[in-house]
From TrEMBL, chain A:
Name by which UniProt lists this protein: Branched-chain amino acid transport system permease protein
Major subcellular site: membrane
Keyword Cell membrane: yes
InterPro entries: ABC_transp_permease, LivM-like
Entry keyword annotation includes Transmembrane: yes
Compartments, as annotated in UniProt: Cell membrane
Domain of life the protein comes from: Bacteria
Lineage, uppermost ranks: Bacteria, Pseudomonadati, Pseudomonadota, Alphaproteobacteria, Hyphomicrobiales
Transmembrane feature ranges: 12-33, 39-60, 67-87, 93-112, 169-188, 219-241, 247-266, 273-291, 297-318
This protein's UniProt keywords: Cell membrane, Membrane, Transmembrane, Transmembrane helix
Topology of this chain in the membrane: Multi-pass membrane protein
A Pfam entry, by short name: BPD_transp_2
TrEMBL record, chain B:
Name used for this protein in its record: Branched-chain amino acid transport system ATP-binding protein
Domain ABC transporter: 2-232
Superkingdom as given in the UniProt entry: Bacteria
PANTHER family according to UniProt: HIGH-AFFINITY BRANCHED-CHAIN AMINO ACID TRANSPORT ATP-BINDING PROTEIN LIVF
Pfam family, one: ABC_tran
Amino acid sequence: MSSHVPSVSRPSSWPSSIVFVGIALVLAALPLAAGAGNYFLGLLISALILAGISLAWALLGNLGGMVSFGHAAFFGVGSYASALLSAKLGLPVLLSVPLAGVIAVGASLLMIPALRLSGPYFALAILAYSQIFRILATELSWLTGGAAGFQAIPQLPTVLGLDLASRSGSYVLLVVVVALCALVYALVRRSLVGTALRAIADSEDATRVVGVNSMLLKAWMLALSAFITGVFGALNAHIIGFLEPDYAFSGVWSVLPIIAAIFGGYRTTFGPIGGAVIIYLFDQVVAKSIIAVGHQILLGFLLAAMILLAPNGLLGLAERFLKGRRDAEA
Amino acid sequence: MLEIRHLRSGYGRVTVLWDVSLTFREGTLTTIVGPNGAGKTTLLKTLAGLIPYEGDIRLGGEPLRGKAWDLAERGIILVPEGRMVFRDMSVEENLSLGAYPRRCRAAFASNLERVYSLFPRLKERHGQLAGSLSGGEAQMLAIGRGLMSMPRILLIDEPSLGLAPVIVKEVFDIIRRLKEEAITIVLVEQNTHIAVGVADDVHLMRSGRVLLSEPAANVDLDRLHDLYLAREAQSA
């Protein structure tokens, strides 16, 4: 390797990602070690659900080059699918949750024609598309309970002596699932397919020339993103035990992940996760105590400040800081 | 052997190629020359599967149909005009994408070695962003990426475009070496002098038709240039 040539740092090179994995694990274990109360664990559980969707959203945005305003659709479909499969068909919850992910993938397949669109056109198409499912969930009241909502959703079971329905159990489960999703994301990204996906964002025409079926790869990323989002929708449904269309398909599930991912750094693996936890806790703990109603407006200010100060997000900022330290040492 | 018969293609309702029939012999270099708008690039894009067509394309007697990625799997590789490298990615990542077709992945390391020995400059700059390369280096990268795809037929579009004469010579030295390795090459070029010099067969295209087909040895450059410019001469 010739040393004088300026070399490009590959995204998430191993050393810095090991640092981040370590930090993430310590942070994840901290609440349990400190014996956090149920209220705080509940906040963290919601934050981790948001983290999962943010990760899925960032995967589609970063690897697929598609901005989605419609992840609420996959979230809602996943919630209802798992709730109905377990409550009406009596499937075990641990089976209905991944199946809900598969059903969310099914919902995403209907979106494939929109993959021909790019940029804002795709974003608007998926926004409109996500409304279809809210309407379906409201109108198919014989199945979903309609606007009155759907109750009696089975709880998460006890596995290996750990009661997943308890706050600490749910928390551990979510940490594990988020970590698994982050691992899948990182593996896809480091593969040749991941390189090809980044190339599509660079020049889609040129990727065709080298033999990349760009439409197929983008469809795969949409499916993967929908699967992850559906799984988190399902987990959320079993944790809170109640669903209604306006909640499950709420625009919040489309908007908050975008804020979280951009805040944390949507081109990184850990950015969306960290961003989601910080954004959610800030919103619930700090913003709510300042402005009781309409506290989300503070998120807008926070995001605007972040975009101005660090367009690559929190993790980009951290990476720049670490790199600066390393360069100073060298 | 790559054969095309009665090929007609274009963009939407605009037909660019009208009834083109050509044969590219295995292991030879065929040069296609012609003025702007003759349909040379369209011909290469059609062969590479980027544009739909009517007519018949056969590779070794078998019909060749499919999208660009299917054809890349079968070894039909285009080195596009204007380089079209991935600007935001490093030189090595660009080359690794050349090995995207499944049949090329196993031999990635040895092919990379080979490309680096053909283009030492690329090895020096392996970690540099492709967008920061000079025109000549980017052209070398585009050709190198094509070689990573282990081409059976290499379609090279205007490699001399916008390059300094000394770099053009360097690029053509490489093309000559590839020809010696018995890769079937279809070269589209405006620089007739140098392009006819490396060719086995020469075709002149104008307005979407083939006007002249000759072995390179028989080509009289003056007559070629007269034909090349004929329409302008008539309208003058």
